[in-house]
Amino acid sequence: MKGFTTTFTTCKNMWSQVSVAMSMMLVAFLFSSSSFGQATVATNAPDYPFGATVYISGSGWTPGETVTLRVTHNPTQPSDATDPAHQPWNVVADGTGHITATWTMDADAYGASFLLTAHGNTSLQNAQTTFTDNFTVDFKQGANKDGVLPLGTIHWIGSILISGNSRIVEGMSTLQRVVFTDLEGGVDDGSGGTVHRLRIFLLASKASHHAYDFITGWNQALGATESLAPGFGLYPPANYAPCITGAPSVTYYLCNA
Q1: Which residues have C-beta within 8 Å of that of residue 233, sequence separation ≥ 6?
Q2: Dihedral (C-alpha) 47, 53, 59, 65: value to the nearest 10 degrees?
Q3: Which of the listed ranges 193-197, 200-204, 235-239 does the model predict with the highest average pLDDT?
Q4: Is 138 helix (H, G, I), strand (E, B) or coil?
Q5: Contact 255, 241 (CB under 8 A)
Q6: HSE on the CB side for 148, CA within 13 Å?
């Protein structure tokens, strides 16, 4: 019985020592993981204009390791294989596992999406992110009796025109407007602005239902509506400004507010 007690005590002491050692190893491992965890890569903005500098940063890499970066089109384009701007380059992670780098939006960046990849040559970790060089298109239709607004008030909405928001008679033209922001390039108009060419394609029917007959101009649409329904005030009078100024992020615009 005494020997059994001694054996049990000895095993218990040994297990306690092993447990302490394993706990210390676990703590050390957790500390290491929190210091140099999952590798990341990021840019300082989601979208850039042509010629802008993309500032790249990352963390979680092995200190001192070489990290290979590359920017390609998303999806990949044939030019990525030969264009010098889209070839891999290397950076070295600092003592805390952080990386920094820059990349310039090149000539083929306009309207494109890009994929930035990072590969750790020691840790074998990978990370990626995306960014763009896009312009913004804000398309809306003009409802002429939406909610509490008086008939004839053009309320720019992002949905379809229905009886709940518009009064439309046969022969009327529906009013539509589009605002482009962040456009680049174009032809100098001689007064500090630029001229861009816009091509419009008209979908005359949808799901076998006929929708539009032809395209009209702004004043033509207003004048024709007054001729079709004189005195009803379905639209503002002809030559009324379309009122497209304002922040594109605003949900709607009031033309005659």
Answers
A1: 151, 152
A2: 140
A3: 193-197
A4: strand
A5: yes
A6: 0
CA dist 233 and 231 (Å) reads 6
Q: Hey, what amino acid is at 205?
A: S
The top-level CATH class assigned to 40-133 is mainly beta
Interior CA angle at 214 toward 212 and 218, to 5°?
Answer: 105
Domain parsing of the chain, residue ranges: 40-133, 136-228
Q: Which of 62, 23, 73, 9 is nearest to 39 (CA)?
A: 62
- Beta carbons of 65 and 50 less than 8 angstroms apart: no
Return left, alpha or beta for 55; rule: phi > 0 is left, psi -120 to 50 is alpha, else beta.
Answer: beta
* CA dist., res. 169 & res. 2, Å (int): 106
Q: How far is residue 83's CA from residue 92's CA, in Å, rounded to a whole number?
A: 23
Supply the pLDDT for residue 241.
54
d(CA 17, CA 1): 24
DSSP state of 23: H
The C-alpha atoms of residue 248 and residue 155 are separated, in whole angstroms, by: 14
Instruction: Compute the Cα dihedral for 78, 79, 84, 86 and give only its sign.
Output: negative
pLDDT score of 154: 85
Q: Residue 138: which residues within 8 A CB-CB, separation 6 or more?
A: 178, 179, 180, 181, 248
98: pLDDT strictly greater than 90: yes
At 26, is the pLDDT very low, low, confident or very high (cuts 50, 70, 90)? Answer: very low
